[in-house]
Specification:
heterodimer, A: alpha+beta, Ubiquitin-like (UB roll), 5-stranded mixed β-sheet, 5 strands, B: about 350 residues, alpha/beta, Rossmann fold, Oxidized Rhodanese, domain 1, 8-stranded mixed β-sheet, 5-stranded parallel β-sheet, 13 helices, globular
Chain lengths: ~80, ~350
């Protein structure tokens, strides 16, 4: 299943891309994250929330959408 | 035509809406990159009472984006400088300036006086303090935050909607997320995000539909992409705050606030033979401290002249009253110079101390 993954803020610097398409057939968001941590080991040091199809979801949510976004907190003002 | 005629002729606002704006009370936390445009537009729009709280002083590197300040504001407190500029922009409204840090001790009392809180802070400690104090006083928070070319906007704690903790339950690990002074920021970005925050404030006051509650707007200035993500309310995040109040929560992790600066009394500073006094006031400020172990580096140029400082000495930093010296110490700490103290009470205390010694 092709999944569009978007990276916001600092995370785009960790992955060196704003977004990418990954072929993914796992069940939950946490399983997806484990895959991403293998690809980008430095990602694990960052705090972020995950949105599926424009909705913030918990890590045990099933991957059923087309787009996943990884969203870190920003502190700047 | 009146100052607000362009509002009044809009059928959605009218005289009734303008009167609502004039009756509204809005507190802006932070007069920095976000706070400046928020304050500028709320003042122009005729929000009747505006509070602005910021302990920090204007530095040269702020002027690229903090549009309420000019060269003549350098070294001066941001809340006081903002008030001066805003009163010229609109002398018919009330501006309350608080030249201090937002802390557990003043947050609740301050929030009680206002209808809406705007988060224009630049550190996680203050952001979580704002969230919790707003939950406890039941005030909506218009949130904005920026990173390099990207910004986030949302309205929290509005009409039973989610809070900041429903999005990010706890602050990230210390040092994991840098602020503007460490990583840089596109100057117009806080302008765009701040004006979006001002817009949400006005929508709340006018009781418009479609307030940005339960949604996080993410803006990317490089790609001009806007993504809006849905946030759901987590009741337990409210219960935790109501349960813990402010006192038992540690907000100190990432605040730039005063409490983290080590202080020294005038007497102790003079007693130590290894003291190097650093005067960070502007060169024209009087009286001077006429002792051989004192050097002058104005705060506005402080970061460029760190090489003048003998770091083997015990550094005692002072200004007029002790506000700017705190910022100078933050700069020293950022450069890993940690043997530095803020002179309690600043030059005011020194003058008094020396008078006592003479008599």
């Amino acid at each position: 299943m092709d999944l569009n993954i978007k990276y916001f803020g600092l995370l785009a610097e960790v992955t060196h891309c704003d977004e990418e398409i990954l072929d993914f057939s796992k069940l939950t968001i946490s399983e997806l994250l484990s895959e991403l941590y293998k690809k980008y080991p430095n990602l694990i040091d960052n705090d972020f929330q995950v949105a599926q199809d424009q909705e913030i979801v918990s890590k045990d949510t099933l991957v059923s959408g087309k787009q996943i976004a990884l969203l870190p907190p920003f502190s700047g003002g | 035509m009146s100052r607000y005629s362009r509002h009044i002729i809009l059928s959605e606002i009218g005289q009734k809406g303008q009167d609502q704006l004039l009756r509204a009370k809005v507190l802006v936390v932070g007069a920095g990159g976000l706070g400046c445009p928020v304050l500028q537009y709320l003042t122009a729009a005729g929000i009747g009472t505006i509070g602005v709280i910021d302990f920090d002083v204007v530095e040269a590197s702020n002027l690229q984006r903090q549009i309420l300040f000019g060269t003549s504001s350098l070294g001066k407190n941001k809340a006081l400088m903002a008030k001066e500029r805003l009163e010229d922009l609109n002398p018919t409204i009330k501006i309350n300036a608080y030249p201090e840090a937002l802390t557990k001790n003043n947050a609740l009392e301050l929030f009680e006086k206002y209808d809406i809180i705007v988060d224009g802070s630049d550190n996680f400690g203050t952001r979580y303090l704002i969230n919790d104090a707003a939950v406890l006083t039941d005030k909506p928070v218009v949130y904005g935050a920026i990173y390099k070319f990207e910004g986030q906007v949302s309205v929290f704690n509005y009409k039973n909607g989610p809070s900041y903790r429903c999005l990010f339950s706890n602050p990230p690990k210390k040092g994991a997320v840098a602020n503007c002074s460490e990583v840089g920021v596109l100057g117009v970005l806080p302008g765009i995000i701040g004006v979006m925050q001002a817009n949400e404030v006005i929508k709340i006051v006018l009781n418009f539909d479609h307030v940005l509650s339960g949604k996080l707007l993410c803006y990317n200035a490089k790609t001009t992409q806007i993504t809006t993500l849905k946030i759901t309310k987590t009741t337990s995040e409210f219960e935790k705050v109501i349960d813990k109040k402010l006192n038992s929560t540690d907000y100190g992790v990432d605040t730039n606030c005063a409490s983290q600066v080590p202080e020294i009394s005038t007497e102790e500073a003079f007693d130590n033979a290894n003291t190097l006094f650093i005067d960070v006031r502007e060169l024209h400020e009087q009286p001077k401290l006429e002792v051989s172990n004192c050097i002058q580096i104005p705060l506005s140029q402080f970061e460029h002249h760190l090489d003048q400082i003998n770091t083997n000495a015990e550094l005692v930093v002072f200004c007029h009253s002790g506000v700017r010296s705190k910022s100078a110490i933050s700069i020293l700490q950022k450069h890993n110079i940690n043997n530095c103290y803020n002179l309690k009470g600043g030059m005011i205390a020194v003058s008094e101390f020396l008078k006592i010694k003479i008599s």
